[in-house]
Amino acid sequence: MITTIEKNEMICENLKRDMSGELCFANMPLTPLAKKYGTPLYLYDEERIRQRCRTYLAAVRETFGEDAQVLYASKAASFKRIYEIMKEEGMGTDVVSRGEIYTAGLADFPLERAYFHSNNKTDEDIAYAIKAGVGYFVVDNSEELFAIDEIAGRQRKRQKILLRITPGIDPHTYAAVATGKVDSKFGSAIETGQAEEITALALSLPSVELCGFHCHVGSQIFDSEVYLATTRVMLKFTKDIYDSLGFMAKELDIGGGWGVRYVKEQPTIDIAENIKKVGAAMKAYACELRIELPKISFEPGRSIVADAGLTLYTVGTVKRIPGYKSYVSVDGGMTDNPRFALYGSPYTILPVAGDVPEDYELCSVVGRCCESGDILQENVPMPRDIKRGDLLACLTTGAYHYSMASNYNKIPRPPVVMLADGESYVAVKRESPEHLAALDV
Questions:
Q1: How would you classify the pairing of strands 114-116 and 349-351?
Q2: Could you give the residue numbers annotated as active site?
Q3: Residue pLDDT, tens place only, 228-263
Q4: H/E/C letters for each residue in the chain?
Q5: Which of 28, 102, 211, 329 is the 20 to 30 Å CA partner of 366?
Q6: Whole-number Å distance between alpha carbons of 355 and 23
Q7: How many CB atoms within 10 Å of residue 319?
Q8: Can you say how many angstroms the Cα of residue 439 is from the centroid of all Cα atoms in its chain?
Q9: Cis amide prior to 40 (ω within 30 degrees)
Q10: Residue 205: partners with Cβ closer than 8 Å, 6 or more residues away
Q11: What is the mean pLDDT of the chain?
Q12: How confident is the model at residue 226 (pLDDT cuts 50, 70, 90)?
């Protein structure tokens, strides 16, 4: 089992303890926020999100030119305010459903900068997105391609698309989030010849405009060698398609996936340096292939918002089984953070009031659901006097927490509160039982 912390280590620079020992996030003490908004509570450091966007944009444009794009993968955290921030920072976005497109529209996000993903877009999804003015579809398969061509034709439009290509790269990451292997549900594989077949098909259809290719090999990648290998495969495929079909891709979207630090054992990624490294290799290989480098896009999600998020909980019960283990139960759990239950994901969990003492005990931090798998983290160092009413903070929860939250056991989802310039404001309200029953008839 992974131990979540060594004593008193902060895994992110927007965390610290004040003179009293109180844990602070985005320079704000957490206890007053818990009193004001209640728990469980999702907190987001707005300035951290903006810094991440600026880091990506500066590095990508310095490396690949001013027309290069950074698309926020909004499945990581999708709500109106996040799209407003992305719009203000000059980001594009990728969306994967009508719900995300609708929410982006509420924020007046320019949908011509939106890229619509999904391996199974319904006819209703496709019609809605084309009518809404979504800039690009990232097309996963031939059935989708035929549907887009037909529906765009009915709307008298010619829809821009990228084809999702499977490069056959195994990122050696969680199997559940590895998407670049040949046997993935996503995309058309180069190895099987299907990628060339779907390219030829796209070029034959009148109501789609093939602009280029897309790939994504996985998540929580800490080694740039994965990107170097992937981009070589994709550039070689681009050249091969030109040689065989006479089509030269104008755009190449190489996805996202750089890792973030959930626990001290994981490294901190220098995003700018990695982008420069990948860019230099791509330019050199494009020159070797004697092709012009296409317009490049990146799709970061987790690495934009993950460590900008923190979840606050209140301890309810503490159960100690002598000779076995101790359980610390909190007022949230798998309904607001399902990732340990799904993937066994490691987290750092800290007491808010003060440092973990030298004489700590290892506890399982668990949730309130009627489910034995409702666990936030195992083997967490906790004070031996931890008790009902104490506050705990689970770090690095900005990605895939609010967006994956559920109402299992009819538990309302927490609010999303943004922190900026020493102030706090609600971005998403706390749900109530009335919200949960609103659609019942």
A1: unpaired
A2: 370
A3: 989 999 999 999 999 999 999 999 999 998 999 999
A4: CCCCCCCCCCCCCCEEECCCCCEEECCEEHHHHHHHHCCCEEEEEHHHHHHHHHHHHHHHHHHHCCCCEEEEEHHHCCCHHHHHHHHHCCCEEEECCHHHHHHHHHCCCCHHHEEECCCCCCHHHHHHHHHHCCCEEEECCHHHHHHHHHHHHHCCCCEEEEEEEECCCCCCCCHHHCCCCCCCCCCEECCCCHHHHHHHHHHHCCCEEEEEEECCCCCCECCCHHHHHHHHHHHHHHHHHHHHHCCCCCEEECCCCECCCCCCCCCCCCHHHHHHHHHHHHHHHHHHHCCCCCEEEECCCHHHHHHHEEEEEEEEEEEEECCCEEEEEECCCCCCCCHHHHHCCCCCEEECCCCCCCCEEEEEEECCCCCCCCEEEEEEEEECCCCCCCEEEEECCCCCCCCCCCCHHHCCCCCEEEEECCEEEEEECCCCHHHHCCCCC
A5: 28
A6: 8
A7: 12
A8: 29
A9: yes
A10: 145, 146, 149
A11: 93
A12: confident
- How many angstroms separate the CA atoms of 411 and 393, rounded? 20
CA 54 centroid distance within chain: 17
Radius of gyration, alpha carbons of the chain? 23
Q: What is the pLDDT of residue 175?
A: 42
Residue listed under structure tokens 């993937």:
343
Please give the structure tokens belonging to residue 348. 């750092």
User: What CA–CA distances, in Å, run from 256 to 169, 253, 275, 286, 300?
Assistant: 14, 9, 11, 21, 4
What is the pairing mode between strands 325-330 and 360-366? Answer: parallel
**In this structure, which amino acid lies at residue 427?**
A
**Residues 325, 321: Cα–Cα separation, whole Å:** 5
Neighbours of 200 (CB within 10 A): 12
Residue 437 has pLDDT above 50, yes or no: yes
Asked if residue 65 lies in contact with residue 85, where contact means CB atoms within 8 angstroms, the answer is no
Residue 245: phi, psi to the nearest 5?
-115, -10
| Rounded Cα–Cα distance for residues 398 and 301 (Å) | 10
Residue 52 to residue 189: CA distance in whole angstroms: 32
- In the chain, the amino acid numbered 110 is P
Start-to-end C-alpha separation, the chain = 46
| Structure confidence at residue 184 (pLDDT) | 63
Q: For residues 308 and 44, is the Cβ–Cβ distance under 8 A?
A: yes
